[in-house]
Write a structure and sequence with these properties.
Strand content: under 5%
Helix content: over 70%
Shape: rod-shaped
Number of helices: 1
Structural class: mainly alpha
């Protein structure tokens, strides 16, 4: 009987530790995906800026 309680206590500690680690990893992955999505947004703005610079240069050359 004592070994059963000892084993159940150990299992509950392991499960609790696993849940903390799993939730922390999930938060890290979510923040990484947010950073990656922000990186994907920024190059599009940079390409729009590059397109506008090229069009301004071409209009200056045409004048």
């Amino acid at each position: 009987m004592f070994s059963f309680f000892w084993l159940s206590k150990k299992i509950s500690i392991y499960l609790f530790t696993f849940s903390i680690i799993f939730s922390a990893n999930t938060q890290v992955l979510l923040s990484m995906s947010t950073i990656e999505s922000q990186k994907e947004i920024n190059p599009s703005h940079e390409s729009e800026n590059l397109d506008s610079k090229i069009s301004r240069l071409l209009s200056n050359v045409a004048e």
